[in-house]
């Protein structure tokens, strides 16, 4: 299918692809401000009217729409009508198994062409989501730049971008590229995907980069702790500052992330890693971020919020962390001293 019946956009609106590309050029190599919002269709979405029931529970409506579109003879398919139908309800931004199955039932070349068209030219969120869902199932290596660009709008498209990139060549490299440029929920999806690949080349990144200070780091902290060989990397006498600092951030997150994922209580190497982290941190100059990590871990060891762990080295660790915090140079960077 090389031509589409109907027109799914007007020349006076910005496509999601153009929107993401322009923001990426203005803010290179970092997460987009406000995760790329407002989107190009923000005003239109506020006034749009569809049926009373706008739900797409587990992608049921989208699955039906995909089947209907691709079961129609190619010469009678109207992509404008497809777009009109998909904006009438609140599309799921998750690739449900039923959606993936419907996409797989159609000819991959035809789905790929429609998916590329929707992802690159749609001026509304829902058709863009539909295009990305198609590429998540049948995209090729040639689609990686398009997937990554739309994926920068990670709050909405991070999950689909992660699904798409995971199944393509150079998955680790491409996922890390996007994860370094996303935050919040989109980053959660991408970090999860990197962890689940279990690819050794991802380990240097997993040891130093996932935690960026956002509270949603709690969603993946335990996943990272299990996927990255922190216990062996931190046991080395020459552990670098980036490794040490990220370990502190990760351990502190594991202390408070109960209800979001696994916690420090679940992490089997916690006792050893806390000891090694303290040893390395003692040789580093204090700063507010390091102080915060040590302070959170000291409270954990002291049983401030929960009973302390039943570890053989608990008392030694507790004394060591408290001693570091009361060292004059460290005390000077505490929040109370900084006003």
- When the domains are counted, the total is 2
Mean pLDDT: 94
Strand content: under 5%
Q: Topology as H/E string?
A: HHHHHHHHHHHHHHHHHHHH
**Uncertain segments of ≥5 residues (pLDDT<50)?**
none
Structural account:
This protein is mainly α and 339 residues long. The protein folds into two domains: 197 residues, no CATH class; 141 residues. Helices cover 59% and strands 0% of the residues. It contains 20 helices and no strands. α1 crosses α8 and α17 runs antiparallel to α18. The mean pLDDT is 94.
Summarize the entry for a quick read.
The protein has two domains: 1-197, no CATH class; 199-339. It is 59% helix and 0% strand. The chain has helices spanning 16-26, 42-47, 60-71, 79-86, 97-105, 108-121, 125-138, 144-151, 154-166, 171-179, 184-197, 203-208, 221-227, 230-234, 241-256, 270-281, 288-301, 314-326, 328-331, 335-338.
């Amino acid at each position: 299918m090389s031509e589409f019946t109907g027109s799914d956009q007007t020349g006076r609106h910005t496509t999601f692809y153009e929107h993401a590309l322009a923001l990426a050029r203005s803010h290179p190599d970092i997460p987009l401000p406000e995760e790329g919002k407002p989107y190009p269709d923000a005003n239109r979405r506020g006034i749009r009217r569809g049926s009373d029931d706008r739900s797409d529970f587990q992608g049921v409506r989208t699955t039906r729409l995909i089947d209907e579109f691709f079961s129609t003879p190619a010469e009678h398919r109207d992509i404008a009508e497809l777009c009109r139908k998909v904006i009438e309800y609140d599309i799921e931004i998750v690739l449900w198994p039923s959606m993936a199955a419907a996409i797989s039932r159609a000819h991959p070349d035809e789905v790929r062409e429609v998916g590329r068209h929707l992802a690159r030219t749609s001026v509304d969120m829902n058709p863009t989501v539909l295009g990305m869902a198609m590429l998540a199932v049948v995209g090729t290596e040639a689609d990686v730049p398009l997937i990554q660009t739309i994926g920068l709008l990670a709050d909405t498209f991070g999950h689909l971008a992660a699904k798409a990139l995971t199944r393509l060549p150079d998955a680790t490299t491409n996922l890390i590229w996007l994860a370094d440029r996303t935050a919040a929920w989109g980053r959660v999806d991408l970090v999860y995907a990197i962890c689940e690949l279990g690819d050794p080349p991802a380990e240097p990144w997993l040891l130093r980069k996932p935690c960026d200070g956002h509270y949603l780091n709690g969603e993946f902290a335990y996943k990272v702790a299990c996927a990255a060989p922190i216990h062996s990397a931190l046991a080395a006498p020459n552990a670098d500052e980036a490794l040490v600092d990220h370990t502190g951030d990760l351990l502190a997150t594991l202390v408070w992330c109960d209800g979001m994922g696994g916690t420090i209580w679940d992490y089997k190497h916690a006792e050893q890693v806390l000891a090694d982290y303290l040893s390395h941190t003692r040789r580093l100059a204090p700063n507010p971020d390091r102080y915060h990590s040590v302070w959170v871990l000291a409270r954990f060891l002291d049983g401030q919020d929960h009973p302390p762990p039943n570890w053989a080295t608990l008392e030694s660790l507790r004394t060591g962390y408290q001693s570091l915090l009361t060292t004059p140079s460290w005390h000077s960077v505490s929040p109370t001293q900084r006003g």
